[in-house]
Amino acid sequence: MASNEELFRKIIAHAKEYGFVFPSSEIYDGLSAVYDYGPFGVELKNNIKEYWWKSMVQYHENIVGLDAAIFMHPAVWKASGHVDAFNDPMIDNKDSKKRYRADVLVEDFILKLEDKIEKEAEKAAKRFGDTFDGKMFRETNPRVLENLQKIQEIKQRFYPALERNDLADVKLLIEELGIVCPISGSRNWTEVRQFNLMFSTQMGSVNEDANTIFLRPETAQGIFVNFLNVQKSARMKIPFGIAQIGKAFRNEIVARQFLFRMREFEQMEMQYFVRPGEEMKWYSYWKDERMKWHLSLGIPAEKYRFHDHDKLAHYANAAADIEFEFPIGFKEIEGIHSRTNFDLGAHQEYSGKKMQYFDQELDERYVPYVVETSIGLDRTFLAVLSNAYREEKLDDGSERVVLGIPARLAPIKVAILPLIKKDGLPEKARELMDTLKYDYRCFYEEKDTIGRRYRRMDALGTPYCLTVDHQTLKDDTVTIRDRDTMKQERIRITDVSIVLREKVAK
Ligand code: ATP
């Protein structure tokens, strides 16, 4: 298999060639970190959205949906802390002229030290075989201890420095650790500066008192400000959740990783409102639930891990990421945050409107606590796509590229292919298409040899192909070909929809 970087490039090229993802405004050389979803990408994206929506809203009686506007009153972003604190510390390398997030440089350095410890332990495990005691090794090996101590020291200095907004110390730390620019290899760094990630625009004409408003950097705030509208209109009782899928915008400093870090992207968020004091119970409940959801996508468990946060955002009392092993390494795909009553409390203060809930069982009024699950739709798309991408050598010596997307997420569920373009086969195939197209996203194709059409469907991740041949005209049977095994079976046309229903639901 290709190296990770090469694999990533291949996935990006495949996504473009097969109509999944195009760079935005490509004829003008693109717009950095903005992408368009093509005909098959939009289907996959919609299927992921639907799967998330169903598992959150349809399967939980106490979770309801919302679709709030992207534009919100500017005071929302003051109350939420985004105007003052939605910053990333950035630093430029004077030689390469490349810009980096200072926190990412330091965190990558820590990751390298952690990697060294892992490698050390793996080496020792090989040396000692069955007698190896990993725990003891980590507690006593001098090199491991030295690295652990170093990590500890960095964290103890770095996170408080960020907290104090002591950017000079962050710069000093980068220098002291000897962190170099990956492009130029030099340590010729500028000062560290804070950079607010919100995009802004003007609402109203300039003559009227135009107001600066922001493009929302997260969908969550639309949920918080509507908390009482939803609770009252849908008669919700705590604990209950509000789910939303929508666009978010961030002027990311470093945005060079395809769908992983975009400036315009989509989030699928659910805010779960709970009694004060019960948030930790729900926090661990949702951590488990969300991990189960990821695994239900048919992606192997070893591709996922939790990362509990050392540094908590201003609104959180506990936070963890679910990380996925992208071709660019293990990175965040979803955040689960215990946001306390920070957001509702802040909106209550700024708006002067009560954001309280009356708990009949307790006979008490309070501002609820919130546990949030926030997953990036585009990152999930990238996870599904990169997990699905396979290059296979076949028995006859040829090669194929196949996207092993689970049937229920696949952009096209079934392709309908007349073996040849004559003898009444296209007409028969069209008839079949007409019976299936209201239930399944189907694809009809009669151009090219059947082998080529199968390959093309493999590359699009189509799980099943139905081929109409001369025998079909005689006995009303078709072959159904399985993308993964490439095996074909002959079934009766009258059974097609039952067979498909069973297969596609898998
Ligand atoms: P990161 O640390 O990678 O910048 P974050 O911690 O800022 O992410 P959150 O604010 O927790 O991210 O947002 C929730 C989810 O939204 C993330 O887990 C991710 O899947 C998605 N997301 C955030 N920023 C982007 C982006 N620029 N492009 C694509 N998806 C994003």
Describe the structure.
This protein has 506 residues and is α+β, with helices and mostly antiparallel strands. The chain folds into 3 domains: 223 residues, Bira Bifunctional Protein, Domain 2 (BirA Bifunctional Protein, domain 2), CATH 3.30.930; 110 residues, Herpes Virus-1 (2-Layer Sandwich), CATH 3.30.40.230; 93 residues, Rossmann fold, CATH 3.40.50. Helices cover 40% and strands 25% of the residues. Strands 3-9-10-16-13-12-11 form a 7-stranded mixed sheet. It has a 5-stranded mixed sheet with strand order 20-19-21-22-23, sandwiched between helices. A 3-stranded antiparallel sheet has the order 5-4-6. Strand 7 and strand 8 form a beta hairpin. The model has no long low-confidence stretch (mean pLDDT 94). The structure holds adenosine-5'-triphosphate. Adenosine-5'-triphosphate (ATP) binds next to strand 10, strand 13, strand 16 and helix 13.
What can be said about this structure in brief?
Helices cover 40% and strands 25% of the residues.
Task: Tell me the layout of helices and strands.
Layout: H1 4-17, E1 21-23, E2 35-37, H2 39-58, E3 63-66, H3 74-79, H4 82-85, E4 87-92, E5 99-101, H5 102-128, H6 134-140, H7 142-163, H8 167-176, E6 193-196, E7 199-203, E8 211-215, H9 220-225, H10 227-233, E9 240-249, E10 264-274, H11 279-295, E11 304-308, E12 318-326, E13 329-340, H12 342-351, E14 357-359, E15 364-366, E16 369-376, H13 377-388, E17 389-393, E18 399-403, E19 414-418, H14 425-436, E20 442-444, H15 450-460, E21 464-468, H16 470-475, E22 477-482, E23 488-492, H17 496-504
Parallel strand pairs: 3-9, 19-20, 19-21
Antiparallel strand pairs: 1-2, 4-5, 4-6, 7-8, 9-10, 10-16, 11-12, 12-13, 13-16, 14-15, 17-18, 21-22, 22-23
Helix pairs in contact: 2-13, 5-7, 5-8, 7-8
